[in-house]
Design a protein that fits this description.
The complex is a heterotrimer of chains A (221), B (238) and C (61).
Chain A lengths: L1 H18 L3 H18 L3 H22 L3 H8 L2 H7 L4 H15 L1 H14 L4 H28 L6 H9 L4 H16 L5 H28 L2
Helix pairs in contact in A: 1-6, 2-3, 2-7, 3-7, 3-8, 3-10, 6-8, 6-11, 7-8, 8-9, 8-10, 8-11, 10-11
Chain B lengths: L2 H7 L1 H30 L12 H31 L2 H33 L7 H22 L3 H33 L14 H40 L1
Chain C lengths: L11 H40 L10
Classes of the chains: A mainly alpha (221), B mainly alpha (238), C mainly alpha (61).
Chain lengths: 221, 238, 61
Amino acid sequence: MTPFFALLGRDLRLSVREGGGAALALGFFALVATLVPLGVGPDLVLLSKVGGGILWVGAVLAALLSLDRLFQADYEDGSLDLIAVSPLSLEAAAAAKIAAHWLSTGLPLTLLSPLLALMFGLPLAASLMLFLSLLVGTPVVSAVGAIGASLILGLRRGGLLLPLIMLPLLTPAVIFGAGTVSAALNGMPNGAFEILAAFSFAGTLLSPFVAAAGVRLNLAG
Amino acid sequence: MFDWLFRYANPARFMGLSGAVLPWLAAATAVVLGVGLWLSFSVPPDYQQGMTVLILFIHVPAVTMAAAAYGTIAVCSLFSLINRHILADVAARAAAPFGALFTALGLITGSLWGRPTWGTYWVWDARLTSFLLLLFIYIGYMALWSAIEDEVKAARAAAILALVGAVDIPIIHYSVEWWNTLHQGESLLSGGFSPVFLWPLLVMMLGYGLLFVTLWLMRIRTEIVNRRARALMQRDAA
Amino acid sequence: MGHLSFDMGTYGVYIWPAYGATVLGLAGAVLWCWLGWRAAKAKLAALERGAAPRPNRESKT
């Protein structure tokens, strides 16, 4: 287990040292939450209706920001080759990187969300469900994003391509994440949270295998 | 189990077989589409929707082929990853532009059908929204192929993306349907289909299918010829 | 079976653009395929012709 946590810890430290840690994602998330009311008007009744969806979309976009570097940095300086031949399997390495990415983006975004929910006039119950849905759903954003990151390794403009190929695949997370907030707003349970949890669980479990395949394909050349 | 298929997967054999079949396919396509159009323009007007059912005769085949083309890409991608066969790579890539075209046509015709039926050019119903997402998936797939220079790497990466998409698309479709019932409550494209409308629709579907296969085979053949040309250029440069 | 009719009533403004877009799109696809094939064949033929007068391999120095 130690190599797994060593890689996880190293990635976390690197993200803080080189990327400002969660600051970029948090800043982007907060900016989106600020820009939308500027775009649609300050009516809190309207904002509370759309807040769940807007904040979910904002969180997904913020999490995607740093994804293209997930494998790229190690690929460029040769560390990825070393990881590939280390006793840690590529699948486990991918899982460690996904975990580190979530800890430095998805989790901080989740923790900030109640404050942003306040800015959208979401009642307490809805705010709580937003928090829980992000907590449960952001791991799959990191996980599915890692698959995309593994496929665009070595591309110069990969960062532009990554959202294009990843966002359609993440629509279930957005739909059920926002649906969870809707259920709390209406007081009518709709099963969204359970489906989100299932999607997230399955996606997070399977993606290290696919991401490892993508990395392997790019290292082989 | 697929030995017979792999015998024709040899590019030279494939060129021979497809070259022989293609003129017939093209002729059949033209005939079937002609019959389909004649049948379509011969239907009586629907008492509720007038002649707008005509649009369905080009909308339903388009969306069906959009989905079928993706299925083709998914199957080819599977062979691409398991057997590492160049023909599978080429076939997968060749199908994509047509799939994207059918998706776009499905969206346009769906929108034009929607305006007289529901009152707006765009409506966020489950089918149109799903196909809009499918269009993005096609574009992303083609972009990935174009972005990677190494042909073999591009083929493998695109194959992985296509298969991830294939697994996710049913989930996406289900989630969009769920979202639609949450916000709108009823299915907008329900309603019976009178038998007199069935024949033109089926014939047009067959015509679209034949058209896809014809164009797809032609693209594969073109790419094989291009690869031979590239190989010759590399040999000459050596 | 009905008779062939092009009278679309008020719906023509939706039906004809739909068919127009479809015809344009599909014809465009056919044309693109056809031109691509012709160009590929021409290129290959030119390359094969260019390589034809190549001398024997043994005379490589």
